Amino acid sequence: MSKVYLDNASTTGLHPLVIQEMTQVLSNDYGNPSSTHSFGRNAKSILELARKSIAKHFNVSAQEIIFTSCGTEANNWILRSAVVDLKVKRIITSKIEHHAVLETVLALQKEYGIQVDFVTVKANGAIDLTNLVELLSQDTKTLVSLMHVNNEIGTVLDLERVGIICKEHQVLFHSDTVQSVGKIGIDLQSVHADFIVASAHKFHGPKGVGFAFVRKNSGLQPLFHGGEQEKGLRAGTEALHQIAGMAKALSISYHNLEQDKKHISGLRSYLLSQLDQEFSGYQINGNKEGFYTMLNIQFPFSDDKTPMILFHLDMKGIAVSRGSACQSGSIKPSHVLQEMLSEADLKKPSLRISFSQFNTKNDIDFLITALKTI
Ligand code: PLP
Prior knowledge:
- By secondary structure, the protein is of the alpha/beta class.
- It has a seven-stranded mixed sheet with strand order 2-8-7-6-5-3-4, sandwiched between helices.
- Strand 5 (about 140-145), helix 6 (about 160-170) and strand 6 (about 170-175) form a beta-alpha-beta unit.
- The protein is about 40% helix and about 15% strand.
- The longest helix has 22 residues, at about 255-280.
- Helix 1 packs antiparallel against helix 7 (about 240-255) and helix 2 (about 40-55) packs parallel to helix 7.
- The protein has helices at about 15-30, 40-55, 70-85, 100-110, 130-135, 160-170, 240-255, 255-280, 310-315, 335-340, 345, 360-370, and strands spanning about 5, 65-70, 90-95, 115-120, 140-145, 170-175, 195-200, 210-215, 285, 295-300, 320, 350-355.
- The chain starts with a strand and ends with a helix.
- The protein is built from twelve helices and twelve strands.
- Pyridoxal-5'-phosphate binds near residues 147, 151, 176, 178 and 179.
């Protein structure tokens, strides 16, 4: 049976050159980067070259890139240390953040009694920046945490604008950029973010590795205690093969950015044209101008199709999702769609279809044909 993978916002396949790079490091470069002998020095040099290469894509210095085990860890670390060490008393975020941010913020509220405010989300999934400015009129030590590209509906935050708003109000700005890193250029000299995070498996790198950008002199303290790795900010022997794979994947992504973006945007437009043709009355959750890598579609099927639609597509070898992968086993409606849709629309089947450069028009045709049998 041929298989079609259209769930690239959950995770992506490894790029063959990344596998090559990782295999090379796994086979030959097994030294511990903290050892002082030649094996260690060799590993250290691979580690620092990876850091330098990643930093260059964001126009920042290598020391501002800290490797972590994933995007979730990076988000947890930054938010927790902002409260515990930087004495942030208030976090402004949105109800459509990934759970790696949302659950962390709620846990911090419970543990430390910080004030949590949610900025208004418009019906099309955009963050209401006028409301953000209103919320910032309060004089409390604050951190704003707003994601760049929403992982379920693909709405895009104007990072530059939010950075300026945060700077003007002298508050910290953290952005979960897990869905955008490797898919759009981010120049951290023009974007005034204090912290951003990334996860390699979203851009054809390995799972279980990510990084945080932490602006110089932030005052952040480590989440884990132990060795002096990562300048004392993240204890634990660095997973060199993962980190080298991540750096390679990011370089490939940014090197091919324009051509991949053109290809993927073409697939997204093609899907929309096919939906126009075959499923009149469908709706886009979010907006048509959302990020080029995904579409969240509400299908004009009866409510009783909702529980079986994913199963039906899976039986035909097609992988898409209802929302975030971490929640897809849940019968609860997506917390993101819940913020935007009416009760009636929430009951209808919605699917997130997310692309990579490895997809083709045939994949879209296959999906459309399968959807027509529902
Ligand atoms: N933030 C966003 C927006 C995501 O899409 C994801 C992954 O689903 C994460 C954070 C978590 O990243 P990781 O899987 O590396 O923990």
